[in-house]
Amino acid sequence: MSDVPARWTEASVYPDMWVDPADDPRNTDGVSPDGELPTLQDYVASYRLTLRMKCEGLDPEQLARRSVPPSTMSLLGLVRHLAEVERDWRNWIVPDDPAPKLYGSRDADFDGAVGEQAVVDAAFADLAREQAATDAVMAEYPDLGTRVGRDGIALRELWVHRVEEYARHCGHADLLRECIDGRVGQ
User: Fold this and answer.
1) Of 15, 133, 152, 165, which is most buried with the most CB atoms under 10 A?
2) Taking all residues of the chain, what is their mean pLDDT, rounded to a whole number?
3) Which domains does the chain have, with CATH numbers?
4) Region 163-183: what's the mean pLDDT?
């Protein structure tokens, strides 16, 4: 017997994919968005959905399962971390009245990711709320060249940073999920 799960996928057309393209909610028919801002918004939305897909069907213990020691990373920790990051981005835009940390001091987002249903429910509610709040603040600045906050960061840079942050953590989520139950990434 081995504790290593066998690799598997729900896809039948492409065995190295998460789901078949026809069943993938991230796939869109037609042309890509026109313009820089709609393209960035589309990428952020797709990565957000990817993270949720990587967490689907797992119980609280599985979501809280840590990667390899000494890392404290888990899927639940990633959800909590991204909620915290969304809040931080908003604080970059509106630095005069910063929202406090959601989970406390450094690494509390990962350290507090324990396998309890209430913690899981709160993490996903926090993420949805923080995403909506950050989206609302960023929508006030449709010109990507606008500089905001104390450091004068361009909205374009903030949007690209959001894509990068979600993409990187979705890569982590691929590996975490495969370690939990063998489900391959896409």
Assistant:
1) 165
2) 89
3) 21-181 (1.20.120.450)
4) 92
